[in-house]
């Protein structure tokens, strides 16, 4: 909806139109248009450009072998809404996924063309999405190791940004797990809604059976004072970064001083991307072991895979 006029546009009517033409016509409304029709301007499944030069990551080296005593996950806001160099950035992200071969992947800001590309490039994963249109979250499960039992999408009733909570119930190495991801409301001005969404996330984590391990990983957009306003985390839910000693090397996942993708002159360092963990009642089955940042190298296009760093978390599985 633009002004008082409702414009009904179908996908085949906008595919192929140049972005600059849309921006000239719609002006300040152009971003809303791109959110609704990102598929009209990019085809990530095209292999017209060479894949070998898209990233300095060599996925054939140091690929993590499956190990029943360890469980690994990646969470990453892949910034699908930024269409600049998107094909090369998507290949860069997939190179990291191939390199580290995690059991579970949590993604935010996925758009339909990116989803199609992921399905093509990561066929050894089952992909569950939080939406099918616009932009959305996704949870990817390695088929050889993680068995999906059920899935659920919990709407955030007062979101203004199409946000929700995506949950899956899975089995891994005999362990019952509830895995969750979300992209909580963005920007400082929406703190009240973001805190409300965080409370819903924590409530859902608490509702899982005590016999199960519960992991939430995603882009929370949280500032530390907002967690305090929420009443802090429940006693049985821990922040993995804090649990592992608050290491400086993986503290900030949104760092405009180092990451130049957004072209922001101000230096902003924030820990937007977080992992919350609730252990099973019988302690010791799964324990967080390490946390590292991903996506710190620029691609050949001169940009990083995303404006966010990814998080790689390794956990020990006590058999």
From TrEMBL:
One of its GO terms (biological process) is double-strand break repair. It is found in: Nucleus, PML body. It comes from the Eukaryota. Residues 74-308 form the Endonuclease/exonuclease/phosphatase domain. InterPro entries: Endo/exonu/phosph_ase_sf, Endo/exonuclease/phosphatase, TDP2-like. Its main location: nucleus. Keywords: DNA damage, DNA repair, Hydrolase, Magnesium, Metal-binding, Nuclease, Nucleus. One of its GO terms (cellular component) is cytoplasm. Its cofactor is Mg(2+); Mn(2+). Coiled coil: none annotated. One of its GO terms (molecular function) is 5'-tyrosyl-DNA phosphodiesterase activity. Interacts with TRAF2, TRAF3, TRAF5, TRAF6, TNFRSF8/CD30, TNFRSF5/CD40, TNFRSF1B/TNF-R75, ETS1, ETS2, FLI1, SMAD3 and ACVR1B/ALK4. Belongs to the CCR4/nocturin family. This is Tyrosyl-DNA phosphodiesterase 2. It comes from Sciurus vulgaris.
């Amino acid at each position: 909806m633009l002004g008082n006029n409702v414009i009904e546009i179908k996908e085949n009517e906008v595919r192929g139109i140049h972005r600059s033409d849309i921006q000239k016509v719609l002006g300040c409304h152009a971003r809303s248009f791109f959110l609704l029709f990102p598929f009209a301007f990019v085809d990530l499944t095209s292999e017209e450009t060479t894949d070998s030069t898209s990233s300095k990551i060599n996925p054939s080296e140091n690929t993590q072998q499956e190990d029943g005593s360890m469980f690994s996950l990646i969470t990453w806001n892949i910034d699908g809404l930024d269409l600049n160099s998107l094909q090369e950035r998507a290949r860069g992200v997939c190179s990291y996924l191939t390199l580290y071969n995690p059991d579970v992947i949590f993604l935010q800001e996925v758009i339909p063309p990116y989803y199609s590309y992921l399905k093509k490039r990561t066929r050894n994963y089952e992909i569950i999405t939080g939406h099918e249109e616009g932009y959305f979250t996704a949870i990817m499960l390695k088929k050889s190791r993680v068995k999906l039992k059920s899935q659920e999408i919990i709407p955030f009733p007062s979101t203004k940004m199409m946000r929700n909570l995506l949950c899956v119930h899975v089995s891994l190495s005999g362990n019952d797990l509830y895995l969750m991801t979300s992209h909580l409301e963005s920007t400082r001005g929406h703190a009240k809604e973001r805190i409300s969404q965080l409370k819903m996330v924590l409530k859902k984590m608490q509702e899982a059976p005590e016999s199960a391990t519960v992991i939430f990983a995603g882009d929370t957009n949280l500032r530390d004072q907002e967690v305090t306003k929420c009443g802090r985390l429940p006693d049985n839910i821990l922040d993995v970064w804090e649990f592992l000693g608050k290491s400086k090397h993986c503290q900030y996942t949104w760092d405009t001083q180092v990451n130049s993708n957004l072209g922001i002159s101000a230096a902003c360092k924030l820990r937007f991307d977080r992992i919350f963990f609730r252990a099973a009642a019988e302690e010791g089955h799964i324990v967080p072991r390490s946390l590292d940042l991903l996506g710190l190298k620029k691609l050949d296009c001169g940009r990083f895979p995303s404006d966010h760093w990814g998080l790689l978390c390794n956990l020990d599985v006590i058999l």
